[in-house]
Amino acid sequence: MATVFEIPLLPQPQKFSIQLGATTYRMGYVYRDPFGWFLDLADVNGAPLVSGVPLVTGANLLAQYASLGFRFGLVVQTDGVNPDAPPTFDNLGAASHVYAVLP
């Protein structure tokens, strides 16, 4: 059974370290108006693994990077009537959430 937990975010650009499974990563979130939020993921030393991944709902954000061997997925979902609404500048971490899914 998969383990799902929310990655705590604020509605502002940010960078932080996070442990997912046995590995520590650096995550960065940036808002590029008018396109929306994007994710950068690096190793613990800051070496880029994936950059500029748009925060879209309804899919594993890392699925297209399966060859990199990530042992987790990332999904975005918005509260309310439309869970597939994209995160806005003001609602990331409040009404729009990023979840890590570990096997």
Protein architecture, described:
It contains no helices and 7 strands. The chain is mainly beta and 103 residues long. It has one domain. The strands form 2 sheets. A 4-stranded antiparallel β-sheet has the order 2-3-4-5, with no helix packed on it. It has a 3-stranded antiparallel β-sheet with strand order 1-7-6, with no helix packed on it. β2 and β3 form a beta hairpin. The chain is globular and about 35 Å long.
Question: What's the quick description here?
Answer:
The protein has 103 residues and is an all-beta fold. It is built from no helices and 7 strands.
User: What gyration radius follows from the Cα positions, in whole Å?
Assistant: 13 Å
Widest beta sheet: strand line-up: 2-3-4-5
The DSSP helix count reads: 0
Number of domains: 1
Beta-strand segment tally: 7
Give the helix/strand class. Answer: mainly beta
In sequence order, what are the helices and strands, one letter per element?
Answer: EEEEEEE
Report the portion of residues in β strands: over 45%
Helical residue percent?
A: under 10%
Largest sheet: 4 strands, antiparallel
Report how far the terminal alpha carbons are from each other: 7 Å
Overall morphology: globular
Low-confidence stretches: none
Could you tell me the mean pLDDT? Answer: 97
